[in-house]
Amino acid sequence: GIGKTTLIQKVTQALRSSDVPVDGFYTEEVKEGGRRRGFDVVTLSGKRGPLSRVSSDSSASRREYRVGQYVVDLVSFEQLVLPVLRNVNHGSDSEKKICVIDEIGKMELFSQAFIRAVRETLTDPATVVLGTIPVPKGKPLDLVEEIRSRKDVKVFNVS
């Protein structure tokens, strides 16, 4: 609720209007009747799908990935995001690319394939990552702390 995604969207628009190659995804709140029902993943090419939704019942009948009241739709998330990250990582090395990853948080980190793809993207010398990570609270998230402590990463606090 601070405005990280709004900032990411504005930066992305500015980059595109300057003809800078940019790809990636952001997460967007889904509201129904003024109440948050979950989050969607939106790729910069315009594809959209569910990341999570409020669970209607508290008994997990099958293996569910949960963050608070939200059930994470890992299949939808991976189907949308992994091709985007693979495409960025396997593009031409002649020009620098910008990869937007909003966000690298608890819900997204249920995906081991996403974790691998983010690490690969961060180590690609032809790619600059513009990403969002959560402020540390509670149990540290391994990949988030790994990113935060990288020498080639600059962290800005958005407030």
From TrEMBL:
Keyword Nucleotide-binding assigned: yes
Xref: InterPro entries: Nuc-triphosphatase_THEP1 (IPR004948), P-loop_NTPase (IPR027417)
Tree of life domain: Eukaryota
GTP-binding as UniProt keyword: no
Gene Ontology MF, one: ATP binding
Keywords tagged on the record: ATP-binding, Hydrolase, Nucleotide-binding
Pfam families xrefs: NTPase_1
UniProt protein name: NTPCR triphosphatase
